[in-house]
Write a structure and sequence with these properties.
492 residues; mainly alpha; Rossmann fold; 4 domains; 3-stranded parallel β-sheet; 3-stranded antiparallel β-sheet; 21 helices; 45% helix
């Protein structure tokens, strides 16, 4: 069997967005599944919009997601002479021609066609230009484009798409299309095909917005005598209003970088975007490792129906698709602790809350705390926000915690100092000891244990929910708990 070779060819005109990342991921998964190669090719021939900053942002995004490539990055601009050479070969073989029709002439023909209620297509006027006339116009410096000559006499372009099935387009439906602009620069439709042939691409996996170009590219492949790659046109990524996701329309919320900055794990986010238009044939959503997803990935699993990215505006934590947050949370809960700890550290460092002792003498405590908290967290940023009471003495008391748990019974003004005294005296200060102390005091006071448990949680964390109280007490330690219980009286 020939080696599987796929490519990801981004245009460096902005950051890596969800739609492009999804395309890169599918190509990467397919290459890894078949032991093939992924080629990274920067299509930078749009000189007005292409920038080095954008190229770096795209590469950074791929590296963060863990999408590595085997060849490249190549640059399309390095092969312009090859693109032009292919155009010249087509002209020399009579399969393309120079078109001198001006924009004004084409506009007049378009208006005339529209007046008749007809769809405008180039009518092949310059097909009949003689060699002598062509040379005369070239000598005069008349501008021209190069058009591909679609075969006459009926016939169709036929190819089998892995996702869409058999596609057949009559030659009569395709106009003689431009392959080189009047400024001498080849169009994407030619350059892309030439690059794919040179890079020996066996499978072209791209969005359905390119499917209208494919019959034209098939004609180019056939005219140049090149073997066709297999095509797989995957569904598009749409917003909740069913508009195509784009950098210009949707802004930073569709940028991969946004998710990196807002607490997503690289593979957790990759896991989510893999499900935007692909299914393993069951209801499974969480793939905790790359190997798991590579094993089950097939192009046949790509869906025809467009995928909807259900982002919504509001609090940054909920601006994205709820499924993305859920899947990321599952990765946080289940990934090896040793892999999660550096991510938690980075979140605390970014928030200015890191203590170097947590990487030294208190490293064991830090790991235990991260392990305790991760069962309730969905984002890495949660360690610095929801987790603040565990890593800092400076945290705000939630209004709900104060009203519901501290002010529920005025007697707590006496009970909390009593509980502080109890905890200050018990030995050892462990799960069994703290639980026995809290429940024993409740029994002696003749109150439900829940009253003291909920009040103590609010007092030491400022929150109404979290891990079990006795786990919290042990993690925070005797000294912090005693001080916080006494200080909480001020809120009553």
């Amino acid at each position: 069997m020939e080696e599987v070779r796929v490519r990801f060819p981004p245009s460096p005109t902005g950051y890596l967005h969800i739609g492009s990342a999804r395309t890169a991921l599918y190509n990467w998964l397919f290459a890894r599944k078949h032991g093939g190669k992924l080629v990274l090719r920067i299509e930078d021939t749009d000189t007005e919009r292409s920038t080095e900053v954008s190229e770096k942002a795209i590469i950074d995004g791929l590296e963060w997601l863990g999408i590595d490539w085997d060849e490249g990055p190549y640059r399309q601009s390095d092969h312009l002479d090859e693109h032009k050479g292919s155009s010249g070969r087509l002209v020399a073989d009579g399969k393309a021609y120079l078109c001198f029709c001006t924009k004004e002439e084409l506009d007049e023909r378009r208006k005339a066609a529209e007046a008749k209620g007809e769809m405008f297509r180039y009518d092949g006027t310059c097909r009949s230009v003689s060699i002598e006339e062509r040379e005369k116009r070239l000598m005069a410096g008349d501008p021209f484009v190069v058009r591909f000559k679609v075969p006459d006499g009926g016939g169709s372009v036929v190819f089998d798409d892995v996702v869409l099935g058999r596609i057949e387009v009559s030659h009569e439906e395709i106009e003689d299309f431009v392959i080189v602009r009047s400024n001498g620069l080849p169009l994407y439709i030619l350059s892309n095909a030439v690059d794919d042939h040179r890079d020996r691409i066996t499978h072209v996996i791209r969005g359905q917005d390119h499917v209208t170009n494919t019959p034209k590219q098939v004609l180019l492949y056939e005219a140049l005598g090149w073997p066709l790659p297999r095509f797989a046109h995957m569904s598009l990524t749409l917003d909740p209003k069913k508009a195509k996701i784009s950098k210009r329309r949707h802004g930073e919320v569709v940028a991969v970088e946004w998710y990196r900055e807002h607490g997503f794990l690289p593979w957790g986010f990759a896991n989510f975007i893999a499900l935007l238009g692909w299914s393993g044939g069951d209801d499974r959503e969480v793939y905790l490792s790359r190997e798991e997803l590579v094993q089950v990935f097939t192009l046949e699993g790509l869906t025809r129906a467009n995928a909807v990215f259900n982002y919504r505006k509001g609090d940054p934590k909920f601006i994205t698709d709820p499924k993305a947050i859920h899947i990321n949370g599952e990765h946080i809960k289940n990934m090896p602790l040793g892999e999660l700890v550096p991510h938690a550290r980075a979140a605390l460092e970014k928030a200015g809350m890191w203590d170097d002792a947590w990487a030294g003498a208190k490293a064991g405590w830090f790991e235990k705390t991260v392990d305790l908290l991760r069962q309730r967290y969905n984002l890495l940023t949660d360690f610095a926000t929801l987790g603040r009471p565990y890593f800092s003495d400076h945290f705000e008391m939630e209004d709900k915690a104060v009203k519901k748990n501290l002010r529920k019974d005025a007697a707590l003004e006496q009970y909390l100092p009593m509980l502080a005294d109890e905890l200050a005296a018990i030995e050892p200060f462990d799960l069994e000891g703290t639980e026995a102390s809290v429940r024993g005091l409740a029994e002696r006071l003749g109150v439900k244990a829940g009253l003291l448990i909920n009040a103590a949680r609010a007092a030491v964390t400022g929150q109404t929910v979290g891990p079990g109280l006795f786990d919290i007490l042990v993690i925070l330690g005797r000294e912090k708990c005693v001080v916080r219980l006494r200080n909480a009286v001020g809120f009553i």
